[in-house]
Design goal:
The chain is about 50% helix and about 5% strand. It contains two helices and two strands. A two-stranded antiparallel sheet has the order 1-2. A hairpin with a 2-residue loop joins strand 1 and strand 2. Helix 1 packs antiparallel against helix 2. The mean pLDDT is about 85.
């Protein structure tokens, strides 16, 4: 049914979203504790949950471009019992 990669990507998205949700419920805001500066460039602050969500979506996008289309298991109207 689902490929192992799909399960891992889904788990990381749910885990990242759950981490941000837990912050929202407990504190009222998401705590972004990673804040990087390089020369005059300032990256927006983020946290590990954001990393999980973004990286898993990038993996999923690249994997969906690489993999062949899946076969559908739905039946046509002619195959359905009347």
């Amino acid at each position: 049914m689902f490929e192992p990669l799909d399960r891992w990507v889904g788990a990381f998205v749910v885990g990242g979203g759950g981490g941000n949700l837990a912050d929202r419920v407990q504190i009222g805001a998401v705590v972004d504790f990673l804040d990087f500066h390089w020369r005059s460039i300032h990256w927006p602050a983020f946290n590990l949950a954001d990393i999980f969500i973004v990286c898993s979506m990038l993996v999923w996008c690249f994997a969906s471009l690489k993999s062949p289309p899946r076969k559908t298991t739905s039946k046509t109207s002619e195959e359905l019992p009347s």
